[in-house]
Amino acid sequence: MAVLGHAEAAVDSDGIVRRIHPSEVIGGMGLPHISWVMAGVAPPHRPEARLIQFSGPSGSYARVSAAALLAGEVPPSTLKGHPVLVGATAVGLGDTVATPLSGRNGEMSGVEFVANVLTAVQTDGLIRPASLAATLVLSLLLLLGVLIAYLLVPLTMALAMTFVVAAGSVLGAVLALKWAGVWWPPATTVLGVCVAYPLWSWRRLEASVTAMARETGRIASLVPASVDAVLPHQTFLDPVESRIQAISAAVDRVAAGIAIEAGPAERKALRDDTLRHLAHDLRAPLISLRGLAEALERSEVGEAEDLVARVDACARRALDLSEQFLLFGRADNIVATDFGEVDLVELLHQVADDLWEDARRHQAAIERDSIAENWWVQGDYRLLSRALLNLGWNALRYGPEGGTLTFFFQRDPAGGVRLGVRDQGRGFDPQEGTSTAKASPIGSYGLGLTFVRKVAERHGAVFAVDLGEDGFSAFLLFPAQPR
């Protein structure tokens, strides 16, 4: 029985033959590929091309000369039980195709190409490529998932996750080819996630610089515009360097503004004290940030993860100091008419909750000890909560690792109530602690404890410390006047 079929090969844009069409319309007649005809199976209903799994390079199939066969020189057993294809294999006749396996053996003859297709049909070895729509949708979903994960996973895991997704895409494509006979090209996804990580890292650095710029403006707005010190023009090519210079100038401006109403000697002493303190607390993380930014520009993608984490930590430290400096200005200018009702017990619980994450990193436990469920005073909630938070951070810094921090609200033996933090360390000397409560506007214990002393003064309280058998306590002593 004679059956018609086509033997056309689909040539890709690079001139390589990788696929065939199960059926073709030739002369208005739909013809299946000759391989399906010889295998005795119907071609697929869907007309898209199929990729071929080649059995090998040119010369992988046995060849018999047609002249020798007609002359009876070929034993019948050589052909018995095997499909026979007749075609030209001589070099120079033009019936050859270039395949992915063309190399030293040269191009493959057309009849051997059909033999490879026939073998693939008989062994179910043809590969169905994923459609363009399916490829784009899956690639975009994976890329979108990576971008969302950047917002959720810890910073130190972002780079590892990028490599996992890229490697997983390649592995998924291999498994889909092996188990389902479907080819999904993973190059789009791999390229997308590899580009997404450095772009996301730069965006984080840019966000940190933007936040620093915003804080610079807030610091500069603390004093009148008539102060001589002004912010410099931002002519630096490096945005991080320009922000460092701007914040340094803003610090000078604020220091000058604070001392406007003081006498010449007091103004100079206050300015020098302020700048000496801030030079250590504020400029150090900003200079570190500048160095890390330069290292980030020179680093490879593999090194960027740690640098971005350190940049982020420095920026957070600088912003925290800027916020505390702003609150210091607020505490310096607030008056009793600005106060509202504040529940000291509720404030204690809120600050303890806010410090929980920091305590966990120091392997410290947090406990609470209060003599009342509520204790109302007239004050500023934001200033009081920051003062108590500073005491908590101080206890974490100088207390023993893995100890216990107790936020307490207790009666004072001499009258009044205490709101503070107790740790199991020795803190600083009680005599020196007393002098801190009576020190100059800046003092010698850093901006944090100076801020606590200032807040205590504005609320009619006293900042004091106590070293007892149960540990070191730092607290605000309020008059016993609950509402």
Description:
The chain is of the alpha+beta class. It has three domains: 10-128, no CATH class; 130-333, no CATH class; 336-478, Heat Shock Protein 90, CATH 3.30.565.10. It contains 16 helices and 16 strands. The protein has helices at 34-39, 66-70, 76-79, 110-122, 132-152, 158-180, 187-220, 239-258, 264-281, 283-298, 301-333, 344-354, 356-361, 381-398, 430-437, 446-458, and strands at 10-11, 17-20, 23-26, 29-32, 50-51, 96-97, 108-109, 128-129, 182-183, 340-343, 365-370, 376-379, 404-411, 417-423, 462-468, 471-478. The strands form six sheets. The protein has a five-stranded mixed beta sheet with strand order 11-13-14-16-15. Helix 6 (158-180) runs antiparallel to helix 7, helix 7 (187-220) runs parallel beside helix 11 and helix 8 (239-258) packs antiparallel against helix 9 (264-281).
Task: Offer a few descriptive terms.
single chain, 483 residues, alpha+beta, Heat Shock Protein 90, 5-stranded mixed β-sheet, 3-stranded antiparallel β-sheet
Poorly predicted parts = 226-237, 429-444
Structural class: alpha+beta
Domain tally: 3
Q: Biggest sheet, open or closed, and with what strands and sense?
A: 5 strands, mixed
Across the major sheet, the strand order is: 11-13-14-16-15
**Fraction of helical residues:** 40-55%
Number of helices: 16
InterPro entries: BphY/WalK/GraS-like, CHASE2, HATPase_dom, His_kinase_dom, HisK_dim/P_dom
Protein name: histidine kinase
Domain Histidine kinase: 277-482
Organism: Azospira inquinata
